[in-house]
Design goal:
This protein is mainly β. Among the domains are: about 110-190, Immunoglobulins (Immunoglobulin-like, Sandwich); about 190-334. The protein contains 1 helix and 19 strands.
């Protein structure tokens, strides 16, 4: 019996030893295969093109095994991550084509200023200041009256203008296109009648006013050669003529304005108004554009515009009488 037990022990020990050997061999075989796969992948002997990755492949978790298509899962490659962090730079700048153009920064002390102040005879003194636009031409506009004026070398100008509205608004347009306005209240305007003539060109028509039957050259004949001063309005005895000369460059605009104090007139009767044009060497055979308007008892009207062809230069020295452009003034004694 004792011998039989020894035999069983030998068989059991041999079986256990055999089983342990089989397990150790299996483990070693598996480890060698894993090392082989990793070495082949790192050495480049066996590569897998990224284009074979499925589009819906999930992002691998740390330490997980990724199996490529047509590759057994047990031969998958462990997911790895770069040793250094990957930085992705995102620019906050707009593309060059979308960057807005730089706006011009205004120069300090260059702001233009225009002010208006009333004075005697329903006139307005217009002060223009544009320090950075010295000797440039500006366009002055008021109720259909428009002309150009050149600023001084300091960018200044003072213009005396006849008001054509009780709420007188003036607009000055500068050479860069900027516009500045000014306003003035002229309460005395209804006491005056006015006739305005304006034209383009150096030489042009003349505005004549012959008061209460006066002939040419008489004391009552008011025109550019005998304009009188604003003081003539005092007491209502007569009117005066003022001229607005335009810029002496380019397209020149001129104006002549006759004013009579109809609201305080000492005499009654008609004032003959006429527009005459002398043919000169500079305007012969040329076109002249002119316009006229009248202000009566504070109401502006009687607007006329005309473009006329001057005679040829053989008529130099002659005069043309332009009829039906302005009506005579009828003055009632007060």
């Amino acid at each position: 019996m004792q011998d039989l037990k020894n035999v069983y022990r030998r068989y059991a020990l041999a079986f256990a030893t055999f089983s342990i050997a089989i397990c150790i061999g299996f483990v070693m075989q598996t480890s060698e295969a894993a090392v082989l796969v990793v070495e082949e992948h790192q050495s480049g002997a066996r590569t897998y093109d990224d284009t074979y990755l499925p589009k819906d492949l999930n992002v691998p978790q740390l330490g997980s095994i990724v199996a490529l298509p047509n590759m057994p899962k047990e031969q998958g490659i462990a997911a790895t991550f770069p040793n250094a962090p990957v930085l992705v730079a995102v620019s906050d700048d707009l593309p060059v084509g979308l960057v807005p153009s730089e706006e011009r920064v205004p120069r300090l002390g260059c702001a233009a200023d225009v002010s208006a102040k009333t004075t005697a005879g329903a006139l307005v003194v217009l002060h223009i200041s544009a320090p950075c636009q010295s000797q440039s031409a500006v366009q002055v506009s008021h109720e259909g009256l428009s002309f150009r004026k050149v600023l001084s070398d300091k960018g200044l100008a003072e213009i005396v203008m006849p008001a054509l509205a009780e709420e007188a608004a003036f607009t000055v347009t500068f050479s860069d296109g900027a516009q500045v306005g000014a306003r003035a209240r002229v309460d005395s305007l209804p006491f005056y009648d006015r006739v305005v003539l304006q034209w383009h060109g150096v030489d042009g028509p003349e505005l004549h006013a012959r008061e209460f039957g006066a002939g040419y050259g008489d004391a009552g004949h008011v025109w550019r050669e005998a304009p009188r001063a604003v003081a003539a309005l005092a007491g209502g005895s007569g009117g005066f003529l003022m001229r607005l000369n335009g810029a002496a460059q380019g397209d020149r605009t001129n104006a002549e304005i006759y004013t009579f104090p109809s609201g305080i007139a000492k005499a009654s009767g008609d004032i003959a108004i006429s527009i005459e044009a002398e043919v000169t060497a500079s305007n012969c055979n040329q076109e002249i554009s002119l316009s006229s308007l009248a202000l009566r008892q504070g109401v502006l009207g009687d607007l006329h515009e005309l473009t006329m062809q001057m005679p040829d230069c053989s008529a130099v020295g002659e005069y043309l009488l332009l009829k039906n452009l302005v009506e005579d003034l009828t003055i009632a004694q007060n």
